Amino acid sequence: MGFTLELPTEEEVKQEVEETIKPTEKEEVVIVDAAKEKADQIMEVDIENFENRKEYTDVIEQFGLDDMKACHKKNAILQQRLTNFHAVGGETGDVAKGLEDLTIKMKDLDPSGIDFVKQGALGKIFNPVRKYFERYNSADKEIATIVDSLEKGKKTLIADNTTLEIEQAEMRDMTKKMQKNIELGNKLDAYLTNAIENAKASGENQEKIEFLENEILFPLRQRIQDFQQIQVVDQQGIIAMELIRRNNKELIRSVDRAQNVTVTALRTAVTVAGALYNQKIVLEKVNALNATTNHMIESTSKMLHEQGVAIQKQASEASVSPDTLKSAFDEMLQALDDINTYKKEALPRMKDTINTFNELAVVGEKKIEELEKSGMLQK
Fold first, then answer.
1. What is the DSSP-derived secondary structure letter of residue 116?
2. How far apart are CA 379 and CA 377, in angstroms?
3. Is CB count within 10 Å lower at the N or C end of the chain?
4. How many independent structural domains does the chain possess?
5. In this predicted structure, what is the pLDDT of residue 88?
């Protein structure tokens, strides 16, 4: 069978098995020579000698008997192993179920179906991001458990394949032995049939011919049929083991993909989703900050414009109103006039007051002198 990446069919596996058990050309030559030699010896049987007849019948009876017993024993062991491999709830079933469970979890946690930027009142109350990551954290433990289960199942499948390879090798050896026995039996059958026909034609002893047909050729053909039946059963066993082994390999690869690709892809998707959400938040904050900055710049520019115009307007006008200055100046002049008028009117009154004080002082001085003279006032 040429190189291919396709899983082989049962027929292809069967053909491959049959090709491996065929005798080589060298073995074919040995078988042909042995069959001719044995046939010639059998044709020399002494029909009158019981011991001689028994010797040949015993040889036919024992032909391949040990190989048949070994095959029977091996088939019994194989049947038990195949029963275990196909048992309900076995490791293969566990692996398949684990892969199915992991697929369900992966679909449930696919972040592409989550609206991370949900707006509105419900988006604030039921935060989709927080809810998703809570669900992921909860499911992550279940995923880890599933992956552990898959790893155990994978190890069991690897061990099963090792056992199957050993069983296959032993069974192939047996089928090769059966094939050689079949080839030898068929060649011996052909030589004996031809020799018996020649004996009939030459008019040999009828009793000898009947002995050869009934006691040699008949049990020989029975034994060949037994060999063929055993070979077919063994081939079916080899094919069954090969299909199981190759299917196990596919399951092992599936487990590896689940561990190395699927779970990693999920965690990467979750990480990227979280990072994108964080970027979204930062982007919204940056946009809000830019909007605030733009508003501040616009407001400042407007204030500068308004205040600049006011300053320029004020600078172009006098700092004090001329009317105010004129009124103040008039008030000041009026005050000066009033002061001068007051001074003029006060001068006579001030003079009268001074004269009055002088008169009072003279009277007082006289009074003091009188007191001194009378001794009433001590000097």
1. T
2. 6
3. C
4. 2
5. 38
